[in-house]
Design a protein that fits this description.
With 400 residues, the protein is α+β, with helices and mostly antiparallel strands. The protein is built from eleven helices and eleven strands.
């Protein structure tokens, strides 16, 4: 493990201690008068001290960590073979315990990678990747630095402390990875949303966009590129989502959509604009909108006539009879419709369609299964308001 004091460092730090211990053990060449028993005792002490030192080196390798001063002090304080033997036994026992702890840690972590618990090594690499993503996205990488520092400190601990701290460090790294990646993802999401705003705004402008909505788009495009903190990223996403949602509502003419602005330079009276590209109808009174609704117009083979017309006939209930004979691909069964308003002399009406689900109106519906034979289908609710409002002679313009 990189966090351990290297064996060579431990040896270097203890050279003086060992020299003193061995000097006392070996001493100068004994005088000829030294007894055989003294020589044997000294030799036994030398052997025992070497065994103890080997045991200490093994313990250091098994346990890791950096605080070995007390062990060196014990070693230096011993003066006989019995004392060194006791250290050998104790440190061998501690080595066995450290090996068991390390085995437990490896099992808990799913293995070891370069001397580090494998799960922490993976998370460390993931944090590096997340930090790089944050830099690329232009967002802050907090709390990556703190988690990285905690991880590096963890690697310096002995194995018992690593077992104790493992889950805490793992959770810290995982949390940092999630937070930093989430921030980068949020920034990319905001940028992705604002990248599509101009196209949506262009489409929505074909039927009219209020100034407040245009300002929403401007604000979203300003906030997203500079967003860096969580608060800034969240604000950018909210602005971009709000602008996107409002533009979609205008294009698809949902209930949440604001009415378009008033038409400039328009004289008084009633004017109904049917916009085929977005499949919606907007009714204006004296130049300002009063009703807006999604529609379904004629299919490609029987398109709704383009041009400017006037409502010349109204009927609360009207019987539709197919002008095409049975066998024609355009033949339809006789049907009763409501709130019918005819504006083209060939039998083109604005009317309801009981057979068409409400969620099938709007953009693209002229190509779908409920496309009309040239008439304009309008949902019951807005059609009832339109029928009550529109007078004979109201202008109807159908355009792309």
């Amino acid at each position: 493990m990189r966090s351990r004091v290297r064996t060579s460092q431990l040896v270097g730090a203890a050279l003086t201690v060992v020299a003193l211990a061995f000097a006392g053990a070996c001493g100068p060449v004994p005088a000829r008068s030294e007894s055989g028993a003294a020589v044997a005792a000294r030799q036994a002490r030398d052997d025992a001290s070497r065994d103890a030192w080997t045991a200490l080196t093994r313990l250091q390798g098994a346990r890791g960590g950096s605080d070995w001063a007390s062990y060196l002090d014990f070693f230096a304080s011993v003066r006989d073979a019995r004392g060194f033997h006791a250290l050998d036994v104790e440190w061998t026992r501690e080595t066995m315990a450290a090996n068991l702890a390390r085995g437990f840690l490896e099992q808990q972590a799913g293995g070891v990678r370069d001397g580090t618990p494998a799960d922490l090594a993976r998370l460390s690499a993931a944090l590096d990747e997340a930090t790089a993503r944050a830099a690329g996205a232009g967002v802050v990488s907090e709390p990556a630095a703190d988690s990285r520092s905690a991880f590096e400190s963890y690697r310096l601990l002995d194995v018992d402390a690593q077992v104790e701290r493992h889950d805490t460090v793992r959770d810290s790294l995982q949390s940092a990875v999630d937070l930093v990646n989430g921030r980068a993802d949020g920034k990319l999401r905001a940028l992705e949303l604002v990248a599509g705003l101009d196209d949506l705004l262009g489409t929505a402008k074909t039927v009219g966009v209020p100034d407040a909505v245009a300002q929403m788009v401007t604000d979203a495009k300003r906030l997203a590129p500079s967003a860096a903190t969580d608060a800034e990223v969240h604000a950018a996403i909210e602005k971009a989502e709000a602008a996107t949602g409002t533009l979609h509502a205008i294009i698809y003419r949902t209930q949440e959509a604001p009415l378009p602005p008033c038409l400039p330079n328009v004289s008084g009276g009633q004017f109904i604009w049917i916009h085929l590209a977005t499949q919606q109808l907007i009714a204006y009174q004296d130049g300002c909108p009063v009703i807006a609704a999604p529609i379904t117009s004629g299919r490609p083979a029987l398109p709704t006539d383009r041009g400017t017309f006037r409502i010349f006939y109204k009927a609360p209930v009207y019987k539709m009879v197919s002008p095409w004979p049975v066998g024609s691909p355009f033949h339809y069964e006789t049907a009763w419709v409501y709130n019918a308003m005819e504006f083209v002399g060939d039998g083109t009406f604005i009317h309801n369609a009981d057979w068409q689900p409400d969620d099938t109106y709007g953009p693209g519906s002229q190509y779908g299964p409920y496309a009309s034979h040239g008439c304009i289908h309008v949902q019951d609710g807005p059609l009832a308001n339109l029928y009550a409002w529109a007078r004979l002679g109201a202008v109807v313009t159908v355009s792309d």
